[in-house]
Amino acid sequence: MKAVILPAHKQGYRIEEVPDPKPGKDEAIIKVNKAALCYRDLLQIKGFYPRSKYPLILGHEVVGTVEEVGEDVKDFKKGDRVTSMLFVPDWSCEYCKSGEEVYCKNRVVYAQELDGFFAEKAKVKASSLVKVPESVSDEGAVIVPCVAAMVYRGLKKAGIKKGEIVLVTGASGGVGIHAIQVAKALGAKVIGVTSGESKAKIVSKYADYVIVGEKFSEEAKKIGDVSIVIENVGPYTLEESMKSLRSGGKIIQIGNLDPSVTFNLRLGYIILKDISLMGHIGANKNDIIKTLNLVKEGKIKPVIGSEVSLENFGKALDLLNDSKNRYGKILISNSF
Ligand SMILES: [Zn+2]
Ligand SMILES: [Zn+2]
Which residue spans adopt a coiled-coil conformation according to this UniProt entry (predicted)? Predict the structure, then answer.
């Protein structure tokens, strides 16, 4: 089968023919229906994940159809449509038992310690799979584990209440455009912040208010008291995000577009304004199940900016790097 391979640390990527995977006892082989490109993929190619195994099949966002299961797999059968968590926890530690497997110290991550999903087929641990409801499309499913469910858990962790105002930076991007919809599904009023007029048009289809430009805090404060910021950009917008917040507000830090750039945090400002700055890593299985239901109810609609075949993976990367024009998710499809 064809796959996008990272041969070694900082050695770029190759589209290569590799042997078809075979399932172990607790594993399944899925035909990849669609995979989705994520900023993490780009950071991995650039070498920001040095502890990955190599060679590695890239890609961690997937929806597929089960082709074959190992002898111990009871919950899935051939033909089931599934998506996967981003990692495989041990399901036995205290974190896992309390439903916070995202903190499992023994977890192994797809496209880091395990091969990922930019391939025709993928080998997955059955315990990381979640069935996709019949009425949810492949596009609607592939945006859930790394994007919509991740935001869902972040907003729950921040204690979101109905009627609160949530501000989303990087609002037209793959995370932002879905974050707006998740926040609205949970009862918030949403301000989308974006960088250009063409992107603002897309954001306005989903957000209650749109602000264009780098200096957005004054305008945000005129709209009302912002309780939560979903920060998808990083050091470039964090200052304005903090200024936008009401006292006691929270920042859910999700994006960090350039990990080599640092941010000078003014502690006095954080203290006097009683701001919580929350890092946020991702979703538990239960968040994925709940968020798939929000997609099923039509409360979250997938926004797909483009779809590129696996052979044209380079084009997908070009689109991801085109910050002026890109919006929504970029999908990688199988044309074989
Ligand atoms: Zn991702
Ligand atoms: Zn665990």
Answer: none
Starting from the CA of residue 105, give the closest ligand: 2
Neighbours of 21 (CB within 10 A): 22
Report the separation in Å between the CA atom of 59 and the middle of ligand 1, taken as the mean of its atom positions. Answer: 8
Q: Which amino acid is at 204?
A: S
Tokens standing for residue 175: 């995370």
Rounded Cα distance between 124 and 121, Å, is 10
> Are the beta carbons of 332 and 308 closer than 8 angstroms?
yes
Two tokens at 13? 């990527």
Please tell me the number of the ligand nearest to residue 102's CA. Answer: 2
Residue 329's DSSP bridge partners are 304
Q: Which domains does the chain have, with CATH numbers?
A: 2-143+302-333 (3.90.180.10), 147-279 (3.40.50.720)
CB 229 within 8 A of CB 169: yes
Determine contact, residues 289/145, Cβ cutoff 8 Å: no
Per-residue pLDDT of the chain (336 residues; tens, 9 = 90+): 999 999 999 999 999 999 999 999 999 999 999 999 999 999 999 999 888 999 999 999 999 999 999 999 999 999 999 999 999 999 999 999 999 999 999 999 999 999 999 999 999 999 999 999 999 999 999 999 999 999 999 999 999 999 999 999 999 999 999 999 999 999 999 999 999 899 999 999 999 999 999 999 999 999 999 999 999 999 999 999 999 999 999 999 998 878 888 889 999 999 999 999 999 999 999 999 999 999 999 999 999 999 999 999 999 999 999 888 889 999 999 865
Q: How far is the CA of 269 from the centre of ligand 1 (A)?
A: 32
Q: Are 60 and 30 in contact (CB under 8 A)?
A: no
As beta bridge partners, residue 192 has 168, 210
Distance 92 CA to ligand 2 centre (A): 5
